[in-house]
């Protein structure tokens, strides 16, 4: 498949994944709310048992947990999926680009041991691309976009969008590694888009969740379409 | 504030984890949002409006983990 078609396919797959994740979020939230109404307004009674742990809950016990499941866990989990989907998308389109134009990696080097462990030139190029991308993605999102601009000369996200994404990525890091409480790393990485000072809980309210999904969807669309047009 | 569909008092639910919330008829969402904004109370509205058994749709308003449910209840009651 020519590069252009490959890039468009990766873009379309990422957009479909983002939409599917948002549907999952919205309809799972709706299912929990429907259960809430069935219990609170219609008097539904039930009990559930977790056969693995042996714990049991009544309908009232479950509703006591439901608000956290919806307002904290579900929104946090799907926000993390939005960020992962974007990272996978950007990694994949850059990999396709570098494999198609490997001369841009001419300054990269592999050790003799690495080269001798590889069977042929395509495997060496693969190894160079992986090394390059590992270094790029270890860096901050602002530098991902700068790398994209330099390598592909595609319209990288505007500064406000890049800053907004950096804050979303920093939020994701706090949710995964920081127990949901903002810390000094978050404040520094979030920059001007910071939402909470160190020590404060970092919630994912509905408006923020929606805005994050919209921004990431736009970035995937703009970058994917821009790269395909240049291919 | 009275729920226009059930004619019951709109109450803040705070019996659980994840922060207090309010359930309001979709038709009264705008009025409740204005009231909360007017009092400087932050909130977020669910992505769904839910109708069960053909009854009028309702929406859930999340007040966040740091919210004061008593204060929000007083605001709602003052609008009765």
Strands of the widest sheet of chain B, in order across it, are 1-2-4-3
Radius of gyration of chain B: 12 Å
Q: How can the largest sheet of chain B be summarized?
A: 4 strands, antiparallel
The count of domains of chain B is 1
Give, in spatial order, the strands making up the sheet with the most strands of chain A: 1-2
Order of helices and strands of chain A: HEEHHHHHHH
Number of domains of chain A: 1
- CATH topology name of chain B, in short, is Alpha-Beta Plaits
For the biggest sheet of chain A, the summary is: 2 strands, antiparallel
Average pLDDT metric of chain B = 93
Order of helices and strands of chain B: EEHEEH
Strand content of chain A: under 5%
Distance between the termini of chain B: 4 Å
Decide which structural class fits the backbone of chain A.
mainly alpha
Q: Give the proportion of residues in helices of chain A.
A: over 70%
What does the overall shape of chain B look like?
Answer: globular
CATH class of chain B: Alpha Beta
Percent of residues in beta strands of chain B: 15-25%
Keywords:
heterodimer; A: 231 residues; mainly alpha; two-stranded antiparallel sheet; 8 helices; 72% helix; 3% strand; elongated; B: 80 residues; alpha+beta; Alpha-Beta Plaits; four-stranded antiparallel sheet; 2 helices; 25% helix; 18% strand
Outline the structure in words.
The complex is a heterodimer of chains A (231) and B (80). With 231 residues, chain A is mainly alpha-helical. Chain A has one domain (3-230). In chain A, 72% of the residues lie in helices and 3% in strands. Chain A has 8 helices and 2 strands, in the order αββααααααα. Chain A has a two-stranded antiparallel sheet. In chain A, helix 1 (3-40) packs antiparallel against helix 2 (59-100) and helix 6 packs antiparallel against helix 7. Chain A is elongated. The two termini of chain A are 12 Å apart. The model of chain B has no long low-confidence stretch (mean pLDDT 93). Chain B has a single domain (12-78), classed as Alpha-Beta Plaits, CATH 3.30.70. Chain B is 25% helix and 18% strand. With 80 residues, chain B is α+β, with helices and mostly antiparallel strands.
């Amino acid at each position: 498949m020519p590069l252009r078609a490959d890039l468009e396919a990766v873009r379309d797959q990422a957009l479909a994944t983002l939409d599917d994740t948002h549907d999952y979020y919205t309809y799972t939230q709706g299912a929990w709310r429907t259960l809430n109404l069935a219990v609170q307004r219609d008097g539904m009674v039930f009990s559930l048992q977790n056969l693995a742990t042996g714990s049991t809950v009544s309908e009232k016990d479950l509703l006591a947990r439901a608000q956290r499941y919806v307002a904290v866990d579900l929104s946090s989990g799907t926000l993390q999926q939005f960020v992962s989907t974007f990272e996978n998308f950007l990694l994949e389109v850059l990999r396709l680009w570098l494999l198609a134009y490997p001369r841009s990696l001419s300054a990269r080097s592999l050790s003799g041991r690495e080269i001798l462990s590889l069977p042929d030139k395509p495997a060496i190029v693969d190894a160079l691309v992986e090394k390059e991308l590992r270094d790029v993605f270890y860096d901050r999102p602002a530098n991902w976009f700068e790398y994209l601009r330099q390598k592909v000369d595609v319209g990288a996200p505007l500064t406000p969008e890049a800053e907004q994404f950096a804050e979303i990525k920093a939020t994701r890091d706090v949710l995964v590694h920081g127990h949901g409480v903002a810390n000094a790393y978050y404040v520094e990485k979030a920059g001007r888009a910071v939402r909470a000072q160190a020590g404060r809980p970092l919630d994912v309210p509905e408006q923020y969740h929606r805005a994050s999904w919209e921004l990431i969807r736009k970035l995937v669309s703009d970058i994917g379409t821009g790269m395909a047009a240049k291919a | 504030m009275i729920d226009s569909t059930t004619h019951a008092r709109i109450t803040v639910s705070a019996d659980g984890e994840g922060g207090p919330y309010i359930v309001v008829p979709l038709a009264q969402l705008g009025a409740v949002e204005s009231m909360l904004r007017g009092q400087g109370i932050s909130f977020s509205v669910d992505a769904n409006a839910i109708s069960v058994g053909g009854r009028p749709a309702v929406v859930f308003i999340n007040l966040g983990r740091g919210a004061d449910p008593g204060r929000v209840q007083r605001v709602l009651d003052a609008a009765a």
